[in-house]
Amino acid sequence: MTKKLKKYFKIWWMMSVNSFSVVLGQKSALMVFLIGKIFRFSFFFLFLYFLLKGTGGIAGYSSDQIIFFFLTFNFIEVVTQFLFREVYKFRSMIIKGDFDLVLVKPINSLFRVLMGGADIIDLITIPPLVVLIIIYGVSFHPTFAQVLIYLVLLLNGFLIATAFHIAILSFAIITLEIDHAVMIYRDITGLGKFPVDIYKEPLKGFLTYLIPVGVMVGLPSKAIMGLATPVGIIIAILIGVLSMVLAFRFWNSALTKYTSASS
Amino acid sequence: MHKYFHIFKISFEEEFAYKWNFILWRFRNVLQIFLTYFLWSTVFSDPTKQVFGYDRTEILTYVFGIMIVRALVLSAKAMSVGNDVASGDLSNYLVKPMNYFMYWMTRDLASKALNLMFAIVEFSVLFIILKPPFLFQTDLTVIVAFLVSIILAILIYFLIMLLLGSIPFWVPEIGWGSHFLVTVVIVEALSGSLFPINILPEVFQSIILATPFPYLIYFPVQVYLGNVTGWALFGGLLIAASWVGVLWTFLNVVWQKGLKVYQSLGR
What we know:
The complex is a heterodimer of chains A (263) and B (267).
Chain A: H1 2-24, H2 27-55, E1 57-58, E2 61-62, H3 63-84, H4 90-96, H5 99-103, H6 109-115, H7 120-138, H8 144-175, H9 179-190, H10 203-210, H11 213-224, H12 230-255
Antiparallel strand pairs in A: 1-2
Helix pairs in contact in A: 2-3, 2-7, 3-7, 3-8, 3-11, 8-11, 8-12, 11-12
Chain B: H1 2-17, H2 19-43, H3 56-73, H4 81-87, H5 90-94, H6 100-130, H7 140-166, H8 175-190, H9 202-209, H10 218-225, H11 230-261
Helix pairs in contact in B: 1-6, 2-3, 3-6, 3-10, 4-7, 7-10, 7-11
């Protein structure tokens, strides 16, 4: 098992180095995207700051708590984009039939199409985000247990995000459509920039149970604020595990529908 | 004019050839409205509350107004100009007996017509479901001024698209990058499609209002709400018209210089 993990880590490292080299070879494009991402984050942060200055808080949450929700959402989004950027390129692989070349290689095909192209631009933005999370997180004076639960629920959030990405890849094999599917996923998870408590039913229920954005990005923040219940935490972990099981089943089923078109 | 009418017709029909693409694009627009609507609805949960000079009716009218104005202003096919330049496909159009800019303007209008139709349906459905307080403008002068501001916004956005499309004359590899920076990041942030610009401090407002971006969404919706009247309205329309003039002049200079260095790579 350890040997297999080492092998896959080595493959991931090599694929990431290749991917970074491609991006670093186009410095002007790298700068444009990096500036764009930093500007987008900073401007939304600025908006949030002035909005909260005028309102004092939203839906019963203080200004710092709302900002922490936003930072945690961004952290999960940026890390998943850093790891799963290759998903955005999967459509051309499917419509050209190039996925055949992945299937014949002696590595897991899902691993290749999910994690084959780490994004250096997102990687650059992770450290400042972590610093901001620590600054705001410390201000809530959390206990060690609360920090631990926050980290466990963050991992659970990544698990759910991974499941979504696997589902999107599977959907792409069946329908040849991925661009909008992945953007719709991002728009829906984008609703988690704020606590799901601001939404009204049935949207709130939809975001809590069906597309568990609340569990994925909202619950970790609630845990560090001491607002998550033990039952809520257990249900969240069950949702995380269940979503991965369903995603793997969907992937295996989708593979049987692959037509190898154009190849 | 007859040929442009046919381009309009073909472009309109082309949208129906990629139905899922279009439907999912519209669905994404609705999702984006949800975030803005519920955020402001929560902030203004008390109907008597006034924040940043807005009451609940005004702010929710602003949010719903964005839906229609976005469909009219930000739906544009001209973002493909950069691809034509980078791939050498521009040559196919240059040899045809038509104006390249008019071609894209016609395609944009076809896209706007279809998007507007869908936006009205979405507006009606969301209006029935969410039942927001909404300000129906009845002042004819304000409605005319709103329509003029929309026409200017469409022209500003079209010219920005063409200017972005000119960048690949010199740097073909950042065609998509420059679109990402301007249309996905800067326009979304500075046009007022997320929040009214005047909730920011004066200094930020002044900086943003000195750019063409707030004249795409923020200014037309403010005109509709009746928040800009008299000389302020006249001045705002004049600034928007000036931006059209400046961008048009700049585009002509850039485009002529671009054509001189154009090598029709890939052809």
